[in-house]
Amino acid sequence: MVVIYSNINNLSTLKLLISSYFGKHDVTLEIVRCTDAKLLETDRLPALSVADTLLFIPNTAAHYLFPPKSFDEKQVNEWLDWESSLLSPSIAWTLGTSTKNVQIKNTLITCLSTLDSTVSSTKKFIVGKEISVVDIIIWSTLQPLYKNENLMVEYLFKLNNLLGWLLQLEKLSQFQDASKAYKIEPGNVPYQVLLSSSKYLNISETSFNVEVEKSSPQHVSEVPSEQEIAAAKKAWNEGGKKLPLPKKNIIPVLPIKGEKNILITSALPYVNNVPHLGNIIGCVLSGDVFARFCRLCNYNTLYICGTDEYGTATETKALEEGITPQQICDKYFQIHNSIYRWFNIGFDHFGRTTTPEQTKITQKIFLELNQNGFMHIESVEQLLCEKCNRYLADRFVEGGCPHPGCNYEDARGDQCDSCGKLVNASELKNPRCKVCGTRPIMKQSEQFFLDLPKLEPLLYHWMESTSNGWSNNARVIAKSWMKEGLKPRCITRDLKWGVPVPLDGYWDKVFYVWFDAPIGYISITERYTKEWEKWWKPAADAPVTLYQFMAKDNVPFHSVMFPASLLGLNQGYVTVSHIMATEYLNYEDGKFSKSRGVGVFGNDAQNTGIPSDVWRFYLLYVRPESQDSSFSWNDLATKNNSELLNNLGNFVNRAQVFAEKFFGGVVPNMILNEDDYILLALCNRELREYIKAVEKSKLRDGIRHILSISRHGNQYMQASEPWVLVKGGDQEKERAKTVVGVCCNITCLLSVLLLPYMPDTSRTIRKQLNASDASCILSPENPEITNLLASGHKLGKPSPLFNKIELSRVEELKKQFAGKQVTKSDTPTKDVSALEAAVTQQAEKVRVLKSSGVAKTVWQPEVDILIDLKKQLESAKKSSTNVLNDVGKTMNNGATSAEEIAVIQENVDKQALHVRNLKSSGAPKSEWQPQVTILLELKAKLAFATGVSATPTGKNKK
Questions:
Q1: For 574-620, what is each residue's pLDDT tens digit?
Q2: Largest CA distance in the chain
């Protein structure tokens, strides 16, 4: 029997009740007075009595009632420590006392922002994919604040992710039952009780600051210390150390003795299709931002990429389009190149793998590995598609994953996308040809294998010494492969399109793409400069650090296969120090699909009218660094309108317009006081964190620090009110000059920090400021703001930086890129228009294949597919009318499922709350009116689902 002893209005009691319901305990709640609690041999409430043991620390008791899963244990404990040492003390002291300590309040605000960003990235729960004791404890701590409208407006305003998470949990039966069984008064009273009845929060205000610093250094107050203010003052007045001029653009870039030489590569995009937004952020855009940052820091930097052009996929695409593989490569190379140019991807050289240099280096590496004893020949069974009359490359065989415990049915012949493990095509269950769908046959063929077991000890020690610089997912993926033990890996195939194997008796074979493609980094560098060995075989006095950017599916080839090959050569090749791998970017609620027209592809972005810098900003803002994220049109518009237009753009434009209007377009005289140095200290803090984040390739964090600086600037200008001061006496006018001058200097800093992320915007701001190149440099060793634009500096002409993205335009774009998805889970009447498009596309494919003169065995499977599609279309046309009638009856009868109605209702509640917050905050109508429109649309949807009118008749809508 479990008993909870509590007094009234004790929010920690909710933690225990909800945890007991999830843990399925038989629990009794007894209310006692604090004075009677001593009879329980404790003066702390609530207390949990279980098995003759009394637990009086709420988080420990909740953990006992609803223990986490073993794999979540560490993360759960970290969050519980954070809640007890930061969130609870800061909220109790801020709302439970009359003392108004700004530092503690700012810590609370930081905690809430942390939760908002956390639930934004996890989408549902704080730890893992299921509810845990962490969700229960944090929800209970915030419940009195969240249920009080005034406190909610003050503390949760604009924290929409956190509000949505609170609403989501509140709807769960366990939370509702606990709230009914134990009612808590909304507002400050529960936090007063929290302080008076819980000794674990019995700390003084002076010790609180120490506690915050110990427990979580990343959650610091927005009030700078005296040391930070003094440092900001010194840097501003003394100018800090003189920065060098940016490096001159010398071609080719070569390693320099005594300097920091950085070599950057992006995973080579495959040439047979147009890259979508997920491809762009996963590789080339991330690499570009880091390369621009390195140049900003005056590091000697080379950024290399190119198209991966060999393999069966290219041959198949060539057959589809009726041209040669080389023509396919030429066509799509230009498409990729133009897309990356539009996105302002600043490669030093963008090359390709169908070059003489690629053939020469690949064959040379193979021969030397073979000579060193790291190659051997095995007779292997290969899959031959008799219909297509060709051996199938691994990626063109699909089937069931052979690994125990994984039942994924669409594993590829080289890797399973579900469990992430390597797969041999011959091991797939029920294999099928990806092109025609028929079952291939097995045929013996001699192939070369890279003897990875021989290289494993060398690779293991190398990985142990270098993997600390990798992203976490890259480290986990690579070490999981090593843990399982490496096996010999086949590196040749019986194909035609590729680099030939340079040995007698094997010239009819080519190297497999995973062996060949990473060597492309080297051959593309040789294409760039004949002194390529200075980068790839660097001298001891000019070492090179290699950074490689990719999506997580490319990690095995860059962390195991390619390094093993280079280590096996024993020729001093540079190996990767930093693998920076992203997770996947999804499109809205699904995946990108070129064939179904779902999602935005690189060439589409140019036609939306949205500038490339806005695309770059948003993709980097949602960069999937630790887990999958999603592109959302609504979120893109929101981020553009709030962060770019209202925050960054507003600050930059206000300062310059004010200088032009009142001070003749020059930076006015500045006499700084304590408030100004506090602002500079806050910006210096963000500057330091920006540098730390980007140096570790935490690009998403870097852009948030930029926005924090502009937010500090907006708050400073709003509090200083220079538009009022300029109309006052001489002292007030001098103060207005200082405020505007300081804001112009912060704007100049922002133009520098924006350069890696939004290069066009950065250049525009610098032109408006008339800023010289001498200020466009960062010093990682001395990250402080100096007087970049001195008094008297002549400014350029200001103009707005960003345009608003209207809701109506968002809806147009959502429809334009929604596509027509036809899946197995659709209604029996598949979308007629989608099938018509598929028939047209397949008919064209058949026509091209037949006219190309290829054998019947190649085009006959495509004819079979066309016939099947036509049958589906005929069936769909017959049944579509009946299905639409059934749907209409269902909707008219109000027969939408209870689950669907609940989801719609939840969205209505969340949006209504958002509108109420916006209106009560005093935001202009232009900001809240679009949100009202969204709310009305949601209400109409709810009314249609339930059969209840959404809007009352008559003029008095209220």
A1: 999 999 999 888 888 677 776 666 788 888 898 899 999 999 999 99
A2: 95
